[in-house]
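Hi support team,

I submitted a single chain yesterday and got back a structure, but I'm not sure I'm reading the token output correctly. Could someone confirm the output below corresponds to the sequence I sent? I've pasted both exactly as they appear in my results page.

Thanks,
R.
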Amino acid sequence: MAGAATSGAVTSAHVPAPGAVTPYGVAAPNTPAPGPLNSPALNSPALETTPDTPNTPDAASSGFSLSEEERLRRWRLVLGGGEADGTGCALQGRDAEMDGALASLYGRGKGGQGADGRRRSAGLGASAPGVARWLGDIRTYFPSSVVQVMQRDAIDRLGLSALLLEPEMLEAVEADVHLVGTLLSLNKVMSETTKETARAVVRKVVEQLEKRLATRTRATLTGALDRSARISRPRHRDIDWDRTIRANLKNYLPEYRTVVPERLIGYGRAAQSVKKEVVLCIDQSGSMAASVVYASVFGAVMASLRAIDTRLVVFDTAVVDLTDQIDDPVDVLFGTQLGGGTDINRALAYCQSRITRPAETVVVLISDLYEGGIRNEMLKRVAAMKASGVQFVTLLALSDEGAPAYDRDHAAALGALGAPAFACTPDLFPEVMAAALEKRPLPIPDMAEQR
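Hi R., thanks for writing in. Yes, this is the structure output for that exact sequence:
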């Protein structure tokens, strides 16, 4: 029972009561009732133990089980109280405050009383002070990863996007990739004061992503560039021993148990001049927000490598070349306009016109492939680019969420052309790019595992 309380999906017991007074304001009159959810509180350390609970790691490893009181406490926090919760458990102190924070987002009304005797209601309403207080509370009770989920749910369920136009509200939120996507979608309606605050929030997220991704990306791609320029008379430190041994296995001397190499194969050091060209072609429709953020960061990292000439293009029904801003991902992001239609064919036509050395070019299309343009022309362009020697990579998403909704017919058609479409996490992206630069098979993840 305790395991179910901490890991399973539960149906929220909370239904908003229009106009109900809550600790954080008045419930929004038109707030829809939430459907099934995975309660973010389930994975919170706040649910793990209380100081008096014997369920410590040492106790667990020694065979101790949760006490009946602790099991009821956990179920009470999950079920949200009310007539149907069946626990008969009353919450006090920190638990009651944490339950209030959860109830304001996933709350339950219907005019009933909770098991702790308090009226159960829900809604953050449209009160900026109430929301700001709630944002502070959830940061107190839950870890950062859970806070980000709850913020996202508050924006999606309760329609709080408009409050993000207030600078003081932006300063209170926990910044992450999804929040950046929301801010970018509101970019055109922000005041200058709000936009300055939003840029600071976006820059904070971008710097965190660069710190996480840049070093490994540079190392991986630099290695790929070096390996793609092999030489036959390398210096000792540049010898590729694996390929050298395989190339000289015919010269194996059993009596000496060694290989006598007739030919050495080594890594050529990347010259100062540009060796490879990379074109990032990014769909900026609303569903691709996280992908736009990550692609902008990777674009800046690749632009810092002398051996790669990187071009960054974003599109909806129009095409915008943001290459001149690629050194600053924040400028790139505020140069996008999330939402609108999609014309992949038009975007690929622009990218194709900018390719000068096809055999040394990698084109990365990041899109869910819902094409609003001319489908057959899009496929012809991909086929033409591949026939000319371009390495073509199709990413359905560049995010941590796995495979999104996408056009399966277009994905299958691209796969038939030798350009398989798959979702890619940010951690895998350097390996994908390295394989494309070296013209070897792409490390395509299992799509079934991403759904």
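A quick pointer for reading it: The first strand starts at residue 21 and ends at 22. Let us know if anything else looks off.

Best,
Support desk
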